[in-house]
Amino acid sequence: MQSTITAKSVVDFLGSEIVPNQKTDKVAILPIPFEATTTYRKGCENGPGAILEASQQLECYDDELEAEIGLIVGIYTHEAIADTRESQSVSLEEMLRVTTETVKSLADQGKFVIALGGEHGITAGVVEAYRQSSTEPFTVVQIDAHGDLRHEYEGSIYNHACVMRRVVEMGLPTVQIGIRSICKAEADLIRDQEMKVIWGREIARGSDWIQKAIASIPTKRVFLTIDLDGIDPSIIPGVGTPEPGGLSWYDLIAFLRQLFISQEVIGCDVMELAPVVDSVVSEFTAAKLVYKLVGYQALAKGWIQSAPPAEARGLPAPRFQVADQLKP
Ligand SMILES: [Mn+2]
């Protein structure tokens, strides 16, 4: 292990409920506590640790899917990589290299990898791993408040504000969801390239956007990147660049369930948690979200036998149903 990529022990995801088995577990959680280019609130290098700590408080039983997902699937937590905590220094290039190597190694072992950031620039390294190991095309589906389509920001092309531009340059199709903060150059790019975007304001209008989003994905296979600022800051205030008007919890899980069932999700990441002092709302919501990703993959892959249909659990959430009923 190289000196700048220090392996720090981390608590196992859901370690309060399950005993990991590196050999047989189907899911691998990969903590990447890397932070170098964040521009507003700092602290996302502490995101993975906070999510893992919060996961100790999760119920193993998923009431929507009616199964003890973690016990059935097995969840292995890898050691932290590209760790910049305690002022450790890791260059962007080294972070990308070790991220790609580690994700590719886990994916080649047949693991479903969920990477935890850390800043969103890490995603370029994660996606590169699937590019190298995947023979079939895939789309990058991004949940985010921001376009992240700048060519460069504050002198770096690997800044967290540029990560989707790097993905576009890889030649991968994208679908962006929850977007509500972009610069003019990004707006021009989206228009000129006819990029697929589901805007935050569309999501606020009702649940029709889910079908539209799924229909706009051009490939069966999908890599999913979640910048937690895509979700409403009322349930995840602990992000570096909060934006009002994000996805509600039920918007989010209704979409994710549909995405996992309709497409084939080959890997995912959950990025940019920057914990807030004296509040655990953000990290607990993020931990529950990670467990939902595991559950929906278990459902899609048939690792769990069956589950009640989404409609039986009130998904997708018809958010304006009550208001509509009140209409004359
Ligand atoms: Mn963002």
TrEMBL record:
<dbReference type="Pfam" id="PF00491">
    <property type="entry name" value="Arginase"/>
</dbReference>
<keyword id="KW-0378">Hydrolase</keyword>
<keyword id="KW-0464">Manganese</keyword>
<protein>
    <submittedName>
        <fullName>Agmatinase (Agmatine ureohydrolase)</fullName>
        <ecNumber>3.5.3.11</ecNumber>
    </submittedName>
</protein>
<dbReference type="GO" id="GO:0046872">
    <property type="term" value="F:metal ion binding"/>
</dbReference>
<dbReference type="InterPro" id="IPR020855">
    <property type="entry name" value="Ureohydrolase_Mn_BS"/>
</dbReference>
<dbReference type="InterPro" id="IPR006035">
    <property type="entry name" value="Ureohydrolase"/>
</dbReference>
<feature type="binding site">
    <location>
        <position position="144"/>
    </location>
    <ligand>
        <name>Mn(2+)</name>
    </ligand>
</feature>
<feature type="binding site">
    <location>
        <position position="229"/>
    </location>
    <ligand>
        <name>Mn(2+)</name>
    </ligand>
</feature>
<dbReference type="InterPro" id="IPR005925">
    <property type="entry name" value="Agmatinase-rel"/>
</dbReference>
<keyword id="KW-0479">Metal-binding</keyword>
<dbReference type="GO" id="GO:0008783">
    <property type="term" value="F:agmatinase activity"/>
</dbReference>
<dbReference type="GO" id="GO:0033389">
    <property type="term" value="P:putrescine biosynthetic process from arginine, via agmatine"/>
</dbReference>
<dbReference type="InterPro" id="IPR023696">
    <property type="entry name" value="Ureohydrolase_dom_sf"/>
</dbReference>
<feature type="binding site">
    <location>
        <position position="146"/>
    </location>
    <ligand>
        <name>Mn(2+)</name>
    </ligand>
</feature>
<feature type="binding site">
    <location>
        <position position="227"/>
    </location>
    <ligand>
        <name>Mn(2+)</name>
    </ligand>
</feature>
<feature type="binding site">
    <location>
        <position position="120"/>
    </location>
    <ligand>
        <name>Mn(2+)</name>
    </ligand>
</feature>
<feature type="binding site">
    <location>
        <position position="148"/>
    </location>
    <ligand>
        <name>Mn(2+)</name>
    </ligand>
</feature>
<comment type="similarity">
    <text>Belongs to the arginase family. Agmatinase subfamily.</text>
</comment>
